[in-house]
Amino acid sequence: MGFLAPAAGVLTAAAVWAGTAVRLNGLSFGARLMAAAATASGVLTFGMVALLDTTRDNGLSAESIFGIARTTGVPLVMLLTGSLVYATVARALRPVEAIRRELADITGQSLDRRVPVPPGSDAIAELARTTNATLDRVEAAATRQREFTADAAHELRSPLAALRAQLESALRHPDSVTDWREVVAEATADVVRLQHLADDLLLLASHGSVTPVREPVDLSALAQDLVREHQHLPEATALRLRCEAPDHAVLPGNPVHLDRLLRNLLANACRYARTEVTVTVGRAGSDLVLTVQDDGPGIPPADRARVFDRFTRLDEARARSTGGAGLGLPIARDLATSHGGTLTAEEPPGPGALLMARFPSRT
Fold this sequence. Notes:
alpha+beta, Helix Hairpins, Heat Shock Protein 90, 3 domains, 5-stranded mixed beta sheet, two-stranded antiparallel ribbon, transmembrane, kinase, membrane, histidine kinase, two-component regulatory system
């Protein structure tokens, strides 16, 4: 009896531990339950044995002692051990219930709320901290989405309003229109701007949800082809475009996305350059480096990080009248990041702006 009862208590505690073994920084939650159950079983068992010894000393037979142990002692040990385990688990899970209630009350309009963090450093406290960190990220993402939606609506409103004004004016006063071809040409220009903006918004919305394509892309050949193409575009007719690239600079990546990245950098440089744009492809250790430099007004050092934010335009030269929608550089940066690279605005050796994309040659 002195062996079987403690063994039963230890086995019961081990079963509880196996079912609830959540590791903590030090002692696991299951180990706490096991210790509590084992202690309770041991104390109750020794108490029962002491009681049986007392009854034996009073002249009871072995059969009577065994009957008392079987009908009273063992059930009492099981009942009290189970009650202790239940109370311990219920108390330990109170913070989990508080976390659940708080999460159930959090909606899209109350993302600033956080779950209560119990004191200590056990698994439940870590769960609460991780939940709050996740809520921080969700709130930040929701804020960025709201800002992006508002900026996109603002950008779409301007060309739509201009297009509507042109067409309504022409329809209401057809006699005042001297050249219908000019009206159609202006309307077409606004439609093209809307189309480009819609394409940029679609790319930003879908980027990251499409399975990345990886195949060898010769960055030098791509740069040379795009420089030759841009030399014949209207915005570059008065500029001198140069390309300095080795014969082969192969990068594993998505050829469509790399083409779009370089197009955006070239379009940005041609928009603000005074006389010249230079595209360079080279190596820095094991990385491939692509730079696009213009001799325009440049980017102030304080704005070299902000220029990659969506819908950001710098004052003066990069105003709405001359600039785009403020999506070209953010898209280029996202495409560089998707290839394991970076896109930054660096200090140019002379006047103008210098944009540098750096890619690991093996990704």
